[in-house]
Specification:
single chain; Jelly Rolls; five-stranded antiparallel sheet; 43% strand
């Protein structure tokens, strides 16, 4: 009986910790982030937010670069793990952005406008085992 209580306590502690740790956006917010294609070089993620929709806290892995194609423009509001917030800039439908290398980060997002937002993220990966084209 006592061993069962200890096991329950460890399991509960582990589940609580895992719930508190932000997960990849495609896991934490599958209604908003959907992997359309992935291989060893790139991951393409479709991101959609309905008007004023919020996503839970999630993590974006660090990437060498991300290309963002806005299929539906708008503006996002972000909340970070320490409680600070930021307002994204107004994005125009059809615009394309290049995001250079950045470290992993966590945030929760909210569509701050009354129109849906749709984005396609092309996340480049590093692959140290990939040979230069001339060496293949």
């Amino acid at each position: 009986m006592r061993i069962f209580t200890v096991i329950e306590g460890v399991a509960l502690l582990t589940l609580s910790y895992c719930a508190a740790v932000a997960q990849d956006a495609t896991v934490a917010a599958p209604n908003n982030y959907k992997v359309e294609f992935e291989n060893e070089l790139v991951r393409i993620v479709r991101v959609t937010y309905a008007p004023y929709e919020k996503s839970p806290m999630h993590e974006h892995q660090g990437n060498p670069a991300v290309i963002v194609v806005l299929k539906g423009g708008g503006r996002m509001h972000f909340v970070y793990p320490d409680g600070t917030t930021s307002e994204g800039k107004q994005e125009e439908t059809g615009s394309v952005r290049f995001v250079p290398t950045r470290a992993p980060f966590k945030h929760a997002g909210e569509n701050a406008v009354d129109k849906p937002i749709e984005v396609v993220r092309v996340e480049l990966k590093t692959n140290r085992q990939t040979k230069p084209c001339a060496a293949q």
